[in-house]
Amino acid sequence: MTTNVNHIRSGRLLLEYFCYGEGTKTIICLHGHGRPASDFEFVTGEGRRVISLNLFHHGNSTFPVDEIEENPLRTSEFIELFEQLLSVEKVTRFHLFAFSQGGRFSLCLLPFFIERLETVTLISPDGMDNHSFYNWSSRQKWARRLFRKFENDPSRIATYSSIAFRLKLMRPKVKAFVDEFSSNKNQFVRASRTWRTFRLMQPDNSAIAIALKTHPIPFLIIMGSYDQVIRPKQAYRFAKKIGMKDCVKEIPNGHHFFKTSSINKFIPLLPFL
Fold first, then answer.
1. pLDDT tens-digit map of 167-211
2. What residue ranges of the chain are covered by domains with CATH 3.40.50.1820?
């Protein structure tokens, strides 16, 4: 299998991406937070070219740390960079496949590239609710200031998550998720920086609904029945908002989808294979 590592730059943004395999069918993939672009190697095969992006603050994709607070990433900025990627790689039509945080980026892209999209497949996508506490709080200056303080000693956040758990303000799986990231300083710093950097990447539900109605394509959201980080009911609410009530499929899984056992559960659902 042919594998190439490439980079493109647009203004202050540097994007690293991997190309796996060759073929007339192009699948562009966006990973979840803390996950590698290599998660999507499994979809390579005869006649398929996979382009897997490293989101900013992952791999060698960079966003200026000193600009996060005053000048975070804008959707229009990422669209410009994505257009450059399509031009460089000579992509005319493509399939979009994303997980978790990558889902937020994909939903932002969808209305702008609907005429070039073959299918969209999202696994437990972030970005389905711009008003969730997770997304809302990222746009509050006091919350971002608090997280910047925690970057020096993330172990302190475990104390707060324990209190929230005892007060029943935090679900067990979410607490475990938070504790996992706060136990490692590098992981927590990346989580804090992505959370703050991507806060203006807000999918437009109305634009998505219009795009999918005007240009009907296979649109699939795969959710884990046991996922407590991004729960199935969030997907069903989102699907109703965009007029795609039958697009959600559940599999017996939590939020970790890229174990071999989990991949075997959802690979039969993928419309581009």
1. 776 777 677 777 777 778 898 999 999 999 999 999 999 999 999
2. 3-132+201-269
